[in-house]
Amino acid sequence: MNDQQTEIDAIEELETAWSQAEMVADTDTLEAISTSDFMLVGPFGFVLDKQQWLERYRSGDLVTGSLSLEDPAIRVYGEAAVTIARHIQRASYKGQPADGQFRTTHIAVRLDRRWLLAGIHLSPIGGPPPFARPAEHRAGEGTPSTGASGQ
To answer: What kind of fold does domain 3-129 have according to CATH?
Structure first.
């Protein structure tokens, strides 16, 4: 096995430990596998520092029934790594449903020969905005006009 694959395997182990710990609200494990300055950006743009992130579980406000990362793409850059995947969760926050599918980016760093999560960013999944779609899919485009006024 090459060094790159060994690093990817280590990141996959970190991602598995993270998702399992989130599902059972294991704040000791989450604390141990994240950097002291860990940050999370939620799917609606809110930002949580490490203590705020962990407190959601300690308080019982966030309950995660299931969590998976689908189609992860992992890139290792020396002492840093980035994972981009589909984050699928069944959860509740303060008793309200918080289920969803999000695009996620996880940032990991190697400190003292160990991989730790430094940040997580979640975004809603959607298509490209209208200005970035191919011309044939834009409203009103691709339709031949019959005259100078378009009539």
So the answer is: Nuclear Transport Factor 2; Chain: A, (3.10.450)
